[in-house]
Amino acid sequence: MPVRLRCHVSADERYILFLDNERLGRGSERGEPLHWFYESYDLELATGAHVIWAVVWSFGRFAPGPQMSVQPGFLFAAEGEYLSLSTGLGNWETASLPGWELLEQTNVTTLYSRGSRFRVSRPFPRAESLNEFNWQPARRVALARDQIRDWMMFRQRRMQPAALPSMMSAPFPLGVLRSVTAPISADTHNVPLPVEGKNETGENWSDFAAGKIEITLPPHAIRRVIFDLQNYVTAYPELTVSGGQGTLIRLGWAESPYLTPDCENHIKGHRDELAGKYLPTVADEFLLDGKSNARYATLWWQAGRYVELVIAVAEEPVTLHRLTLEECRYPLEMESRFDCDDPRLTATLPLLIRGLQVNAGEIFFDCPYYEEAQWIGDSRLQVLCHAMITRDDRLTRKALRLLDASRQPTGFLLAEYPSRYPMLIAPFSLYWIGMLWDYAHWRNNPDLVRALLPGMRSTLEAFRRNVREDGLLHAPEGWNFIDWTNSWGNEGAGIPPNAVYGVSATLHWQLVYALSMAADLEACLGEVELAAHYTRWGATLAQAGQSAFWNEARRLFADDLAHTSYSEHPQVFAILSRQLPPDQLPHIAEGLRHAELQRASYYFLHYLLEAYRLLNLDDLILKQLRRWHTEMVEIGLKTPLEGLEPCRSDCHAWSSHPLYHYFATLLGIRPTEAGFARVEIAPHLGDLTRAEGVLIHPQGEIRAAFRRETDGWHCEIQLPEHVRGVLYLNEQVIEFERYFSA
Fold first, then answer.
1. How many CB atoms lie within 10 A of CB 155?
2. Is the backbone peptide bond immediately before 72 cis, with ω within 30 degrees of 0?
């Protein structure tokens, strides 16, 4: 009779688990020693012999920065009557996997935090080929149960169930053939691309890409084949071939072609155009062993829009049967809906959504091509966007917990985590407080928020130690990044004036802003004394900031104590702190509109848009949001840029934040109480004549539709049951429940 087997599997660092030739899953879900995850599987075993096996590996010195490790190993834990199958109890065997090595990365497109790629000279193993390996009894690498004491557990991995669902796995087409050439050398990194559509060989690579034909290449042939996936993709590639022993195939990925061989200048032009450009790739290499129908694959996914095959055939002909892509990412899809009468805004939606999708994996990524790292500053904006489009908040909850686990004895959090390479960006610790505030209001999970409040308090105390007798925040240690505003100097590190060792208005007002959120969080959870404490402290800091940085002649806050530099950034944080007197706001609004200021890049524009909203600068809100179409969609991008052109990364999730503002600023839908129990709807529609949307809510959905008529704005609003709302429209304040129409 069939047997049902439940098991739990983990590895340090990664595994791929198989039952016979069926791949059951990949893991372990990325974490850190205090949050080490295992996946659970329910196996249905038919009558007969079966083999449970896994490919397990550690990257070692080639590891991606976000991939942490304690000690390489593998865990298989079976339940119930099959407990004896578990590692440490069953007769598990191990064998090294020959023919796999990690490549040194020397290209200018080195994956700074993604680790190294693979050189593979052996097909991926199958169940029937396992007897080819030199099997030895497995060796225990953990202490036996009778050797462990309770007080020793913190030194080990703290195991817990996977926090996330399995990553999405689906075929992705190879897209459109853009070029086929027969270069004299397989070294193509600095070779300009030919005229669009050129095919020097006569082979039908388009039909090959579609899976309709195979292609056979003769001895000593060299081919360079470029496919345009027509979207940005994170995927596992697999190539199936026969023959061609000694043939080298380099399978490379790129975000975009470059106008010059010097890729460090990041000059790319229109992303759809290839002719005459250069395409440096991040590549895996397959060295064929001549077997028939051999499948070559890598152990980690690739990312980008363009896929390049460079094939150098050796002494024997080679037949390429197929090249397939398995898209792999978090199962994130758009559950809300937005529409308006401006096609520039609606045409940008796919770019914003795709940017979020390919930057969501086992953690939030800042970008999949260069780093796949979970930075706090990036993650806050991703959390807000996820709150707009999906009810699934598991990735958000995991990010809050993991980043909290990075907190150092000083109270500051690490800027990115998980990470093998500790880095401190003190302002990012304040963004984590913002993440917690956002989650508390947009979702309904007070227990998690309450559990994380001690960490928030510790972080604020870390900043208190940097407030001197003059009442001003002096720059904390570390990289005090705020925005990619190169005109600030500091070697282009995004650090505002005086934020390395001195006193920065931007850092000071950011702390005041964070204190306002901390006070609100404490009040929401009943800690009224702590709420009052943070309110008083924030008011004291605001008074000091007014005295030190306000320039009455310019009617703006200076960046520094000497009043020699002015930026948008301190104005923004001062406004968001809600500590300014009302008569000061019109002067700052005028300065933001007309003054000579250091301007924000795409990332910090989120906070600028938040300030515009409080100042009712609707025309500037629309002007900024339309930039995404002009500066990204119109140059062929499929995902949003990291920063202003020329730009390193073509896919940065922090620049998907206009999606948040479509709902929270244009339609004006925001929570005014924790748990989204009460809704404010205050649209900022500028010159639009129609806007509507459906926004997910913890208790259902919110529907809002606005249209401009000759007598003003008309609307229809529908809220979930038991949710109260207040509408600000046509200079009226209207409280309602469930439904309103006017």
1. 10
2. no
- Strand bridging mode 22-27 / 100-102: unpaired
CA distance linking residue 72 with residue 373, whole number of Å: 21
| Contact residues for 138 (Cβ-Cβ < 8 A; gap 6+) | 87, 92, 93, 94
Digit-coded pLDDT (tens) for 693-711: 999 999 999 999 999 999 8
pTM: 0.96
Write out the two tokens for 422.
Answer: 């500790």
| pLDDT tens column, 643-653 | 999 999 999 99
The Cα-based distances of 384 to 433, 438, 670 in angstroms read 13, 7, 11
pLDDT at 519 over 80: yes
Residue 174, C-beta contacts closer than 8 angstroms, at least 6 positions apart: 209, 210, 227, 229, 307, 323, 325
Residue 75's DSSP bridge partners are 10
Rounded (10°) CA dihedral 371, 374, 377, 382: 100
* Helix, strand, coil share of the chain (percent; to 5): 30, 25, 40
SS3 letters across 514-580: HHHHHHHHHHHCCCHHHHHHHHHHHHHHHHHHHHHHEECCCCEECCCCCCCCCEHHHHHHHHHCCCC
Answer whether 557's CB lies under 8 Å from 574's CB.
Answer: yes
Q: How far apart are CA 122 and CA 481, in angstroms?
A: 45
Confirm if 17 and 152 have CB atoms less than 8 A apart: no
CA dist., res. 33 & res. 49, Å (int): 36
Contact 405, 32 (CB under 8 A): yes
CB burial of residue 378 (10 Å; 0-12, 13-18, 19+): buried
Residue 664 corresponds to which tokens in the numbers above? 């929270």
Asked if residue 592 lies in contact with residue 623, where contact means CB atoms within 8 angstroms, the answer is no
Interior/surface letters 489-518, b for 16+ CB within 10 angstroms, e for the rest: ebeeebbbbbbeeebbbbbbbbbbbbbbbb
Omega prior to 418 cis, within 30 of 0:
yes
Centre a 10 Å sphere on the Cβ of residue 76 and count the other Cβ atoms it contains: 23
Question: Collapsing DSSP states into helix, strand and coil, what is residue 283?
Answer: strand
**Smallest Cα–Cα separation from 373: which of 116, 653, 113?**
113
Q: How far apart are CA 680 and CA 664, in angstroms?
A: 10
Q: How many CB atoms lie within 10 A of CB 459?
A: 24
Predicted confidence band of residue 132 (pLDDT cuts 50, 70, 90): very high
